[in-house]
Every structure is written in C-alpha cells, then in structure tokens.
Amino acid sequence: MREEIWVRHKGKIIGASVGLFLAIIYLFFGFWDMLVVAFIISVCLYLGKMLDEQEHLPDVEDWFRKLGDQWRRFR
After folding, report:
1. Radius of gyration of the chain from Cα atoms?
2. CA 22 to CA 54: how far, in whole Å?
C-alpha cells in the first residue's frame, strides 16, 4: 500500500516536503510572515501535483522575463 501511495502521489509528496522544509527555514527569520510560508508550501504542492498529472511545468525563464518587465515600470 505504501508503494502505491508513493507511485501515485510522488510529485505531491516531494513538492509538499520541499515546501515544508523551505517554510521551516523561513520561519526562523520571522514568525509573522506566515502568509509567505503558506505561499511557499502552496506553490511547491502545486508543482508536485503538476508532476503527478504529467502536465507541462511552467518555463522559469518566461516568468523571470515577465517579472523583470513588470519591475522596470517602478524604476
């Protein structure tokens, strides 16, 4: 049964574990930033779910380009 759970939900387990690890590290820098912690876990869980469903992962370079264009407006 454990193997079946691992096979079916491997991406979600890895994503949530990495998100939880990063969130615990982040908690050492400030307790009141719990919204950021929840965001980190949610994003990692979402990416793990995408891996489980064998969906195309978002292209990181496109995200950096879009965010860079948006931040240039504030300069």
Report:
1. 16
2. 24
What token pair was written down for 67? 């965010």
The answer to whether the pTM exceeds 0.70 is no
pLDDT tens per residue, range 16-60: 888 888 788 777 776 566 667 778 788 888 888 888 888 776 777
> How far is 39 from 19, CA to CA, in rounded Å?
9
Crossing angle of helices 34-52 and 2-27, in 10° steps, is 150
H helix or E strand, kind and range, residue 45: helix 34-52
Which residues are CB-neighbours of 40 under 8 A, at least 6 positions away?
Answer: 19, 22, 23, 26
